[in-house]
Each structure stands twice: as structure tokens, then as C-alpha cells.
Amino acid sequence: MSIPGTQERAALLETLGTFLGQRREFAAVSRREWFQPDMANAQAYADSLPLYREEWKRLLGWPLTEPAAAAETECELLSQDALGRVFRVSQRLFGIVRTYGLLFLPAAEGRYPLVIAQHGGKGSPELAAGLTEIGSANYNRLVHGLRERGIAVFAQQLLVWDDGQEPKFDQYLLDRQFRHLGGSRVAFDLCQLQGSFNWLLEHPEIDPDHVGMAGLSYGGFYTLAFTALEPRIRVAVASCFVNDRFRYNWEDLVWGGSALRFLDGEIARMVCPRPLFLEAGEADDVFSVEGFSAPAGEVEKCYKALGLGDRCERRTHPGGHEYDIDGKAEAFLLKWL
């Protein structure tokens, strides 16, 4: 015996799926018609991006939309190892919030190019740098490889830690708290990155004309999101993130009306005309490799249309949800840094 109303509720869900599908088709047209940077040449393209950067900020919301005073910063030497010096950089953001990251400098004082190495979900600066009991896990040589090359590396702690990290917290609950107030957790994390970035570019041992960013998973997203906003970053690597955002519509990666303005392809195209490396793992069990090709292809097509095909590289590697298994991403970073 069927429960009364079952057939009617099934019809409701079926027809609602059709209704939403029609809206997704409309959103695709809306994005194409709205996101139209000037394709005349590379400089014209770059000059046309500020409008889109401001809309990206507006979409993510508070506190990214607020003017931020220079953050109070403390830099403490933690240790020295065979590759150089390790510092903790602490900031007081908006005069209240205490943030931190790790800065790795070569042993000798000098002036060095910088890469911001961004951890992903369930991660931390310590994990990405291999400073935990399990080493660097799926970050592989993200930090260590660059340090071996004499590159300064900065790793920011963002609000996406989990397994093995203390204290425990719910990143999705935190995001909902921000949304109630007109913002998002992502907006706050980007403020963290901006505060650290501004301080780093004034550091006497950092060459501000040679700065790149690379990240895995959520770190790949933050690499695209922050590089899109910050034109002083020269080159970016986003690993194991770009995908079909309708399939992977996690609540903290979706904002009101975002499909009408920015999905992964549009965010990545705000990095253009600067060099960009995109990769996905063929055995990735977090973001299926099948969803990588379409948005990554859109990005590559944009670079080629501007005559900048050598500045965009997209590839799949035979590994899983992991960063740069063979050094190709690192080589790309070093080439353009």
C-alpha cells in the first residue's frame, strides 16, 4: 500500500528538476554574455578585469567588501633547518582577529622570489610543509621542493582544517554564520591572504616583482580566487580543484547567483593573461577527473585566443587527489616566476 501523496511528491521533484535544469541553461547563457573581457590583446584584457574583480568581491561579500587597515604583524623565528629559516607570521586582522602563517626563507639573508603555498581542506601550513608526523601527505613537494630551489615560501592557515588539527570546528557552520551577516567564510579567508600578502611584499627579503601562488584542492580554489583579485601575483598553479561546480556544489563554494556570474572557468580566466597551470588527478576520489576537461578547456581557449597559449598549461596526471606528482607544476612556476 503506497503512502498517500507519494505519486504527487514524485511528480513535484521530477518537474522541479526540469525547472532547475532550464535555469542552469539560462545561467550558462548569462555567464557568457556577462563575462566578456576585452579580447583585443593581452593588455586590453588585463585592463578590462577590474569590473569583474569588483563583482567577484561583491558576490563573496563581507568582510572582503570592507576597507581594511594595515594589519598589525609579528614575525617570530621558530627554527632553522638544512633548507633555511622558519618563521611564524601572526597578524591582527581588522584590529581583532588573530591569524597566522609560516614563512620559509633560505639560510642566508638576501632577496628572494616568493611562492604562496596554499593548503587545502583538512590541511594546515605545517602539513603542507611536511612538519607533521605524516610528512607532507598529498601535498608532496609543494613547499619542500620550492625551498630546495632557494625560493621563499609562505603558507597561510585558512579556515578549512580538520583531521588531526586542533581545535575542532565546523567550517560549514562558520560559513553560515558569515552568510547571515552578508558575507562568507571564503571572503574572510581572502582577507587573511590579502593582509599577509601586503606585509610580505614589504619584507626586505622578498622580491615583490616575482611572486607566485600554488595550492591543492581548496588551496587550488583559493589560488584562483586570490590571484583573480591580486594582479601583483605573476603566476599560479591550481591542482585538483577545477571541475563541474553543479556536480560539486558544496555549500561553501556556492554563493547567491554565482552561476550567473562565476563558475570555475570564469574565476580562472581572471588570472589571464598571467601564466596559469591547471591539473587534475586521474584517480582523484574527491573531484572526478571527468569534470575537469570542460572548464579547463574554456580557460585554455581564452589564452590561445590572445596568442598566449604558452602561458596556460592544463594536464591530468595518473595520481589521485594530490599535488604535482612529477615536478611539472613546479617547473612551470619556476619558469614564469
Please tell me about this protein's structure.
α9 links the parallel β7 (235-239) and β8. The chain folds into two domains: 1-34; 38-336, Rossmann fold, CATH 3.40.50.1820. It is globular. The chain has eleven helices and nine strands. With 337 residues, it is of the alpha/beta class.
Task: Return the string of H and E elements.
Answer: HHHEEEEHHEHHEHEHEHEH
- Report the mean per-residue pLDDT as an integer: 96
Low-pLDDT parts are: none
- Largest beta sheet, briefly? 9 strands, mixed
> Proportion of β residues?
15-25%
What share of the residues lie within helices? 25-40%
Structural class, by secondary structure, is alpha/beta
- Return the CATH class of the largest domain: Alpha Beta
Quick one: overall form?
Answer: globular
Radius of gyration based on Cα positions = 21 Å
How are the SSEs ordered, and which strands pair?
Layout: H1 6-34, H2 42-47, H3 50-60, E1 72-81, E2 84-93, E3 97-105, E4 112-118, H4 125-128, H5 144-148, E5 152-156, H6 171-180, H7 185-200, E6 206-216, H8 218-229, E7 235-239, H9 264-269, E8 276-281, H10 293-305, E9 312-317, H11 328-336
Parallel strand pairs: 4-5, 4-6, 6-7, 7-8, 8-9
Antiparallel strand pairs: 1-2, 2-3, 3-5
List keywords for this structure.
alpha/beta; 2 domains; 20% strand; globular; 11 helices; 9-stranded mixed β-sheet; 337 residues; Rossmann fold
What can be said about this structure in brief?
This protein has about 325 residues and is an alpha/beta fold. The chain has helices spanning about 5-35, 40-45, 50-60, 125-130, 145-150, 170-180, 185-200, 220-230, 265-270, 295-305, 330-335, and strands at about 70-80, 85-95, 95-105, 110-120, 150-155, 205-215, 235-240, 275-280, 310-315. It has eleven helices and nine strands.
